[in-house]
Amino acid sequence: MLSATQDDPVSLPSPVEMPYFGGGKSALIVDDNPDFLLAMEQLLAMLAIGVIKAHDGGQGLDRLKLCTPDLIFLDLFIPVMNGMEFMQQVRAQGTPVPPVIVVTGEDNLHRDARSEVAEALGATTALAKPFTAHQLATAIARVLMPYSASGGQRRTTARRLGSI
């Protein structure tokens, strides 16, 4: 599970096969937990995805004015404005909205409610914290990996990741 404690800031499973998404991709992470931001930054770096961090909804909007990430990881319960308000503001800007992966604590929303909220936001999927590196990579693959022309199969390239 992707988890963080004071003694062990990032805990990952032992070596695991993960997709490699190639360079040039970026993700905006809007979350107020600094340990989670650090863990995500390290995981996404191993997947060759650049990270733009925002600690609250206002910072997230500011970051989107400066760059266009390939996807957004959005916690629903963030300061300044919650995830719903953040998405309303993003859509009001009138620019294309990158795919959104909702990430929120398992205790915050029941699984079915999380899916409903994600759908209402127009999010691609939702992940409950804590989640595994494999679950993260699978969610990203749904968003970033293009379908090949032959039979709609996803292009797959694996890269071996060790523990941090």
* CATH domain fold name: Rossmann fold
First-to-last CA distance? 13 Å
Counting structural domains, the number is: 1
Compute the number of helices.
5
Features:
alpha/beta; Rossmann fold; 5-stranded parallel β-sheet; disordered N terminus; disordered C terminus
Structure description:
It is a single chain. With 164 residues, the chain is α/β, with parallel strands linked by helices. It has one domain: Response regulator (Rossmann fold, 3-Layer(aba) Sandwich). It has five helices and seven strands, in the order ββαβαβαβαβαβ. It has helices spanning 34-46, 57-66, 83-92, 111-121, 133-144; strands at 16-19, 25-30, 49-54, 71-74, 100-105, 125-129, 158-161. The strands form two sheets. Strands 3-2-4-5-6 form a five-stranded parallel beta sheet, sandwiched between helices. α1 links the parallel β2 and β3 (49-54). α2 (57-66) runs parallel beside α3 (83-92). The radius of gyration is 15 Å and the shape is globular. The two termini are 13 Å apart.
Brief digest:
The protein has 164 residues and is of the alpha/beta class. It has five helices and seven strands.
SSE topology sketch:
Blueprint: E1 16-19, E2 25-30, H1 34-46, E3 49-54, H2 57-66, E4 71-74, H3 83-92, E5 100-105, H4 111-121, E6 125-129, H5 133-144, E7 158-161
Parallel strand pairs: 2-3, 2-4, 4-5, 5-6
Antiparallel strand pairs: 1-7
Helix pairs in contact: 2-3
